[in-house]
Amino acid sequence: MGEQLRAFQEHEWDAIRASTDTYGEEAIGAVLHAQQTFAFLQELDAINWSDQPYIDDLPQITKDFINNDAMPPWATDVTRRQMDRACAVFDEAGPMYVISLLHKSLPECYAAAKGAHVLTSTGRLGSFAKGDQQSIDILVRRVVETAHFILEVMDAKNWDSESKRAIRVIKKIRLFHAGVRLMQLQKGTWDEATYGKPINHEDELGTLLAFSYVALMGLRKLGVHVAPEDEEAIITHWRVVGYYLGIADHALPTSMAHAADLWHDIDVRQFRASDDGKLLTSALSVFLENVLFDKRLRGMPNHLMNQLMDTRMLNMLGVPLHKDVQKHEWTGLERFLTWLCNLFLHMGPIGRAIFGYLSKMVMISLVEIWNGKKQVRILLETELKHIP
After folding, report:
1. Of 118, 116, 140, which Cα lies nearest the Cα of 275?
2. Neighbours of 99 (CB within 10 A)
3. 109-to-147, 214, 339, 343 alpha-carbon distances in Å
4. Helices 77-92 & 349-370, crossing angle to 10 degrees?
5. Contact of 293 with 278, CB cutoff 8 Å
6. Is 272 helix (H, G, I), strand (E, B) or coil?
7. DSSP state of 112
8. Of 211, 237, 313, 266, nearest to 7 (Cα)?
9. pLDDT at residue 138 greater than cutoff 80
10. Is residue 255 a contact partner of residue 246, using CB atoms and an 8 Å limit?
């Protein structure tokens, strides 16, 4: 008998997996089925670049979708304060948070075999192992876009009442996901009986948990001390992000304990060794080795994955094991970075604010370097063209 599910019963999880963001599908569908598709996609591409984007020509349902920026009905003033605190903690622990995201959160997403298949089948990543340069470029772009998205939604000023830039960034990703889903299903070759609908609510929830709960677990393993109330604030913040992504509201995490139960259930239901998961993890490792770290630090990504993930997960993803991770040559550098992060996390408000600002500048610069020193822009008109 398998492990007992904690958050939902099996049939409830099946219902979550069978559900998708129908509102997002209607909004992007009206664009994709219009004669002016290209012009409409260009208008949509500008929604997160301007505080007052021009969307007057878009179909009415698409305009309504974009303009609906009200906070969740369950949000309170406490929610707003928790979001501000979550963004502050991200700034203060930013570099280590990003390390956790890249070496734990993303790989563990790839352990969900069915979700991993969506990624390899919708981005030409399946040919990565053959050294296809286009697939390598797309993989790099996917990682850069993920990092950019996280920086945008974890920036407090992007949530203020005047800007609401974060909401538009999330809506754009939501439209992209809905567009991918529609295009896959319309081709008629997607094996829904095996994989469920592409980018369904269970897979999206898993990604949301990876960027919040799993990343926090990574910080714990790295020895970064985030206060319990700050961990709860980060979970609340990502619950709000999930709301704007259109994930089923009843499935979103309400606390660290609830997030742990949700992640446990997804692990039991979806985590399996797969060729897709191993391929994606291998591709990520190549990116980290060749783009993120200096050539003198080759081996650091594999060390960090060994440090942050357990043996079962490492084997599932095909990551080479270290016999004694605590005695590895990169342990000293990792401990120094952790010490530095904890030092500033426990400084006074002024010190933390200064360190938070510097950390944010470092993260923004890194993302621009990864992107060839160009500003990161997620273009729907370009992205949807890459769907085979």
Report:
1. 116
2. 27
3. 15, 10, 28, 31
4. 70
5. no
6. coil
7. B
8. 266
9. no
10. no
Integer-rounded Cα Rg, in Å, for the chain is 20
Cβ neighbour number for residue 77 with a 10 Å cutoff: 7
Contact (CB, 8 A) for 359 and 94? yes
Distance CA 379, CA 172 (A): 9
**Closest by alpha carbon to 41, among 385, 387, 386?**
385
149, two tokens: 């998205």
Two tokens at 60?
């009415």
pLDDT greater than 90 at residue 185: no
> For residue 40, which of 69, 68, 70, 61 has the smallest C-alpha distance?
61
- Euclidean distance between CA atoms 350 and 245, whole angstroms: 34
How many residues does this entry show for the chain?
388
Are 365 and 144 contacting, i.e. CB atoms less than 8 angstroms apart?
no
Which range, 30-34, 40-44, 54-58, 236-240, has the best average confidence (pLDDT)? 236-240
Answer for the pair 116, 280: CB distance below 8 angstroms, yes or no: yes
For 260-272, the pLDDT digits (tens) are: 999 999 999 999 9
- The residue-averaged pLDDT of 137-161 equals 82
Residue 383 identity (one-letter amino acid): E
Counting Cα atoms < 13 Å in the Cβ hemisphere of 280 gives 31
Q: Is the distance from CB of 240 to CB of 83 less than 8 angstroms?
A: yes
d(CA 332, CA 90): 24
Residue 73 in tokens: 């009905």
**Amino acid symbol at 102:** L
Both tokens assigned to 324: 């004694």
d(CA 235, CA 212): 6
C-alpha distance from residue 108 to each of 23, 117, 257, 363 (Å): 29, 14, 19, 22
Q: Residue 147, SS3?
A: helix
Hey, is 294 helix, strand or coil?
Answer: coil
Q: Is 111 helix (H, G, I), strand (E, B) or coil?
A: coil
Q: Decide if pLDDT at 130 tops 50.
A: no
Give the per-residue pLDDT at 211.
96
**pTM for this model (two decimals):** 0.86
Q: What is the DSSP letter of 71?
A: P
Distance of CA 142 to the CA centre of its chain: 10
What secondary structure letter does DSSP report for 122?
Answer: S
Helix runs in 19-132, H state only: 22-32, 37-45, 60-67, 77-92, 94-100, 106-110, 113-121
* Dihedral-angle region of residue 190 (phi above 0 means left; psi in -120 to 50 means alpha; beta otherwise): beta
